């Protein structure tokens, strides 16, 4: 007998729905919210309202593209945590209402676990155990994954996430939100060895990006003369702007190179410590072309089996919620209707 799951993702600013049958994704429909661009970041209240507008058409389209009707669905899955509480509430209330009306089991999914399991959507899939570097707008983690339902965070950021490092650097360069994809685009035409930003020395398998952000801020304020704050070094605004304009491509390439090297040096350390050779990346920042290329080169050098989800499964999407729910369904790990959305649930 087939298992058909309808999954809903609404943790931040993407409203997404997916239908999966026996672990195979049949549809994955996402409505992006453009309303936040002019605010240089996601405005939670606007995100919730946009989810309310988008959720019915997105779910309808996901069902029709998969050629399924609601009555043929065996379970309803949703992102329970972490995320913006107002956004999570729209998806969770919608999923709970459907489960109640259709009398189907409900499956609550952790968004970060789903990013990891995006690596199980397409072939070839990693064998267990595998390591996953999960890099998104809110999280940066190294996860040891022993089975689809058993995973452990073995390293994480102590301050900003990698996505924030990209977005905040982009903001300092005067680029619009979200700046990560733009830094990626400009970095392709720049010289990554032109400017040198410091690599933080953080113990164990943890990360830090706040020092890098500060060093970029001072470097731009000083119009490239130094990374250190000294009132007498600060250039006048016109000079700062001119420096950025004339060096934008090299600045993007050098910043990207440093973020990627911080991430991959820790991933290399994790691979040595655990002895695991199946290594994945996941999350919005895994869409970054510099990270993808450097990760694959590192994999060849150290004889890892490397895996990266298809582009559409890197940034937030419901297909990753559906695949995670499929494994939870097999283990009969269902939630009851009293389950609530949680902005900050641990694993
Ligand atoms: O996983 P995700 O879609 O949402 C969260 O769960 O946070 O990740 C969003 C983050 C943003 O910070 C965005 O700038 C970053 O992923 N991002 C990128 C690229 N595409 C998305 N960062 C660098 N290069 C990219 N190509
Ligand atoms: Zn995410």
Verbal overview:
The protein is of the alpha/beta class. It is 41% helix and 18% strand. The protein contains nine helices and ten strands. It has helices at residues 44-66, 85-102, 111-117, 162-172, 180-187, 210-221, 237-274, 289-302, 319-330; strands spanning 4-9, 14-21, 24-32, 75-81, 106-110, 130-135, 140-147, 150-156, 278-282, 305-307. The chain has a five-stranded mixed beta sheet, with helices on both faces. The protein has a five-stranded mixed beta sheet with strand order 8-7-6-9-10, with helices on both faces. Helix 3 (111-117) packs across helix 9, helix 4 runs parallel beside helix 6 and helix 4 packs antiparallel against helix 7 (237-274). The longest helix is centred in the C-terminal third of the chain and has 38 residues, at 237-274. The radius of gyration is 21 Å and the shape is globular. The two termini are 31 Å apart. The mean pLDDT is 96. The structure holds 5'-O-[(R)-(carboxyoxy)(hydroxy)phosphoryl]adenosine and zinc ion. The site of zinc ion has 6 residues, from helix 3.
Task: Summarize the topology.
Blueprint: E1 4-9, E2 14-21, E3 24-32, H1 44-66, E4 75-81, H2 85-102, E5 106-110, H3 111-117, E6 130-135, E7 140-147, E8 150-156, H4 162-172, H5 180-187, H6 210-221, H7 237-274, E9 278-282, H8 289-302, E10 305-307, H9 319-330
Parallel strand pairs: 1-4, 4-5, 6-9, 9-10
Antiparallel strand pairs: 1-2, 2-3, 6-7, 7-8
Helix pairs in contact: 1-2, 3-9, 4-6, 4-7, 5-7, 7-8
Features:
alpha/beta; 347 residues; 10 strands; binds 5'-O-[(R)-(carboxyoxy)(hydroxy)phosphoryl]adenosine; 41% helix
